[in-house]
């Protein structure tokens, strides 16, 4: 056996910030060197950030990435780090010579590189290009066809990129044939609920297939709607976890590995092997050092326990909000604080994300606001220490009403739109980012006012169903007084109990309650989960045990609200299918699920929708 100290740099990059990301690579490489590492690996597309989307199609950006990679290699050597091999993701282009695998030759590459001695030693590219959910890499990138294997201190190390691990065939399927003692996979794998368990099982399965240890380094941080949770892991050839990084925080996972020494020195150069998916993969061998390291005492391994369900969901919302604010140049946020559960949770997430001193809450009582709502909102302000101001809107509403003859829904929604005008005015005046308070149940059913409560720059709970909103509020209150990453050290429960137990209401007319317009959330949310996230049709929903009348009502509400969702701001993705990049349905659409008896489920007329549906 041979020893190797591997460092996985689970770090937070920013899309387009080539110099800043290069700085991070140098900083974390230095930390790895100080920890005595023999190899350090960074996530997929670390140098450019991920996902770059159509930036990859700009030749100028590809050129900049390639030049930044060369500068980085030289800089590492100049700063005394050139002897430590660095593996990092970047944006590349194929060598001159045209198309690969039937794709146009001009497409760029989602690539990985080994840097050593001031040079770019090895280049390879992702083979499996995901084309589902939030991914559209097949449209953007050309496919790679190589498995690089680098001999380092007498150990053969193979490298692959993210999706190549998730799909059968391709480079990972020929790892066993390569004789590698370690498969190193660099990743930018977005978070979604319960994905950490599936990811660990996948790593274990692939390690057993490859017959070698597997190291999985993942990105951490927020990028628009995506949140990357880290959770980097190393498993043995039998799939057993050897070390694991914590979730949602930057971390250097340093692990001493006992690995099989490489066999007789293989000649450098390519060997072509048929992969399981019918493609041909070239095993590309390189030699850095052939002699195993002298034996040294191994450091204790770290296996961070995974977070429980609500803790990781809440961490994803906080990290996604924090990075959206920070990476887009904002220092503060503003939101309407109604005294209801949704705005209370959004305010709390914002306080945890950027500090309560940078959160500005606006109380906007109208003639229909209950005294309890104002009192509850003021109590939350007191507990959290956020900035606040009261802007009564009754006179503003009356001024509009004097000029416009509005009734019913139009009059109700006027109040919501006036509130949004106040938020946007304060945003323009003071440079705050406006946070919206809509949850996934409301977005699904269109239970919001277009250009009213849906107005803003970012929606922290956009992908959170209403029942989970209550669960998260209770969970966050239970953390008061505890020291935990990503949580502000509130000494008392940040959300008043009166807000949590209050029946939800938009308070746009006397005595209004959500249940006047929507089914009970305990019945509605499971239907929405199956219809929105699992794409189940009407009959399948009924067969799953949902009430037929509620199913048909929910389908009508969801289908008619597509135009409103398209205009909603981004928010952190936590479910398998969010409203945004994941779920793409036409606005103009005459397809209707069939009701019992074969009649199509017609949507409600636009003139007759219930409150907050305008």
Describe the structure.
By secondary structure, the chain is α/β, with parallel strands linked by helices. 34% of the residues lie in helices and 18% in strands. The protein is built from 19 helices and 20 strands. The protein has helices spanning 18-34, 59-78, 137-140, 163-166, 170-173, 175-178, 195-210, 309-327, 341-354, 371-384, 394-403, 408-430, 440-445, 466-478, 497-501, 521-533, 538-543, 548-560, 562-565, and strands spanning 2-10, 39-41, 86-92, 109-116, 119-125, 146-152, 155-161, 182-187, 213-218, 220-223, 226-229, 233-235, 241-244, 251-259, 269-274, 280-287, 333-336, 359-363, 387-390, 433-434. Strands 13-12-9-8-7-6-16-15 form an eight-stranded mixed β-sheet. It has a six-stranded mixed β-sheet with strand order 5-4-3-2-1-14. Helix 8 packs across helix 14 (466-478) and helix 16 crosses helix 18 (548-560). The termini are far apart. Mean pLDDT is 90; it is low at 604-613.
Read across the widest sheet, the strand sequence of neighbours is 13-12-9-8-7-6-16-15
Helical content band? 25-40%
Q: Using only CA atoms, what is the Rg?
A: 27 Å
- Describe the largest sheet: 8 strands, mixed
Task: Give the N-terminus to C-terminus distance in angstroms.
Answer: 68 Å
Shape: elongated
Estimate what percentage of residues fall within beta strands. 15-25%
Mean pLDDT: 90
What structural class do the secondary elements suggest? alpha/beta
Low-confidence runs: 604-613
Report the total helices.
Answer: 19
The beta-strand count equals 20
